[in-house]
Amino acid sequence: MKKKILVISPYNPFTPILSAAARTLHYRIRNLAAMAEVTLLTFTGSGGQEKNTALEFGVTGHFIPHPRRHDEDRPTGLTKLLRIVAGRLEAFDNISALVSALASALPDILRDRRFDLIHIDDVIIAPIVRHLPQDTRKLLFFHNLMTLQYRSHVRTKKEIHKKIAASVEHLWIHRFEADVMKNFPTIVVLTDVERRKASTISPTTRVVQIPLEVDLEEYQPSPEPADVRRITLSGTMSYEPNHEGALHFIKEILPGIRSRFDDAKFFVVGKSPREELLRFHDGQVVITGEVESIQDYLKRSGMVVAPILSGGGMRMKILEAFALSKAVVSTSLGAEGIEYTDGENILIADTPGAFADRVCSLLENPGECARLGQNARRLMEEHYAVPLVWARWRKVYREFGIP
Asked: Where in the chain are the domains?
């Protein structure tokens, strides 16, 4: 008889358009369903066909409405600072809303079924552990160690009051994650940097590092020639590090590129761009919003950039570009967690001038784009293909008695 696993996630892996977090869950749950009886609790997505799609994978899906955000109520200025000092973080409000919504569906799921393992997919819903049977084994996966993400926010703030506010937020997030980890004997993180940090936050917790993965059958390089003057950044633009990175590229890096290549075009591809970013949309800067296929945009691009200044975890956007044999220029932080070699399969630059120079070096030499892209694809085949990463996940599940 197959073991029974309950997966609880804020990311819906069966919607037509998958975010980076949803995509990696899609890969994992697809493999998990082949060896266990999987029940999924998540939020409804676009398309309305997720339950049928889940059944095609052999997954019993429970899809509930996503809690509404009240962005218009966001405090600013002194009010925001006082709320942060008191520990009333916007992140905590979001976590509470997500957990409350998901927990409302648990009584029906748990009433008639006992699970061998409950897999909680991301720290932003980790407090749901309070609503789960104490005697059931549990595993927590971090899509992002928030402590590192918020610490990087402190470094990017220039105004003293914003730096103080970010520092206090970091302390509250650190405390939150330390409290969360106490509830889980084993957690999984994406990068070795996160593994080391999590081990210091909670020394009694076993921390396993497993990277992101990409289905290389799905992500195949295009035989069609790309537009060598087309530069692309992809990702969910409501996510602060992506928004910040896009603005940084447009304001600080792109002028240096345009001074040498005035026909270069910059594409920002991803859903929920903010008004501040949309104002830059013109013939040379294209802000697409949500698109049906990010792959299509990446394939048509001469190169992909990741000018990331803050955040944590791994960047699926870089792995997807690698899989499509695209040359990538990134900051060190943007490529963190990836086993890259600068100059062999990626170009790394951490100042606006250096970043512009490295982009221009590729614009001058399309053959170098091809070389970097081929090496990047080989790196994916050797380290980040789905079967390789799944073997590491399967080892963890076996330790929980899942064959």
From this structure: 4-213+386-399, 227-384
